[in-house]
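Sanity check. The docking grid for S-adenosylmethionine depends on where the pocket ends up, so I'm generating a full predicted complex first rather than guessing from homology. Inputs follow.
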Amino acid sequence: MQSSHCKLCNRLFYIQCYVLYRRLKAQNLIKMTEVKKEKRGGINFFNCDNIEFMKTKPDNYYDLAIVDPPYGIGDKFKGGKTGKMNFNEVVEKDWDKVPSKEYWNELFRVSKNQIVWGGNYFDLPPTRCFIVWDKKISEDFTLAMAELAWTSFDKLAKIIRLPTPKTGGKRHPTQKPIKLYRKVLSMYGEKGFKILDTHGGSFTNAIACDEEGYDLDICEIDSKYFKDGLNAFDVYKSQTKLF
Ligand SMILES: C[S@@+](CC[C@H](N)C(=O)[O-])C[C@H]1O[C@@H](n2cnc3c(N)ncnc32)[C@H](O)[C@@H]1O
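Predicted complex below; grid placement will be based on this.
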């Protein structure tokens, strides 16, 4: 009698836990972390949240982090030639959220050095070693002529002059050229470096790291970008094998 009563109590306890779990999940108070992983040579692709990913790594695990977080500006800067911001037309994108303090803490914990694209949008320490990407765009064009990266290195500032790819060839709205990543790796990478990219996007950085012979862990939270980027990586690999 005693044991069947205990069994009933146990059952009720588990049912209550399950109901509570479902309620918390429905209110987004519990986030289930699903990590999908793919491996191609020295490149590990993770379809997951970057903070959850970094939490699994020890201090200084990566020699260099090259990251390109969302700036959280949506389409605020649609002003084009007039330079006027059109706040009424701000397009909120799910992925266009500025990283939290927790993100920066984890990034600086797991990596020895960092290169942060769009560093001018974030509250980062002063640095003399920033990189200007000169997109070689003519002045009357309605796109930004340059982008800035913050770096943790104690070196001289550099300018990389490289045209931005034509929009037609883009599979991601903020896709950076493979050549840009290769150039950055040639300037700041060293043989045997283990690299981290927390915001994969189109995975052009993965192609660059593969070409330059670096091991890379790269995260992307959006499953469509992840699938498209991985597919593009495989296409690139199959094409390079032909030659
Ligand atoms: C500015 S884009 C990166 C573009 C990339 N550098 C390229 O060349 O294609 C930022 C990317 O980070 C992804 N992202 C945003 N929040 C994330 C998170 N918490 N964890 C992993 N990826 C995230 C977005 O889905 C988006 O694809």
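Relevant for the grid: The domain at 33-242 is CATH 3.40.50.150 (Rossmann fold).
Also worth noting: The radius of gyration is 22 Å.
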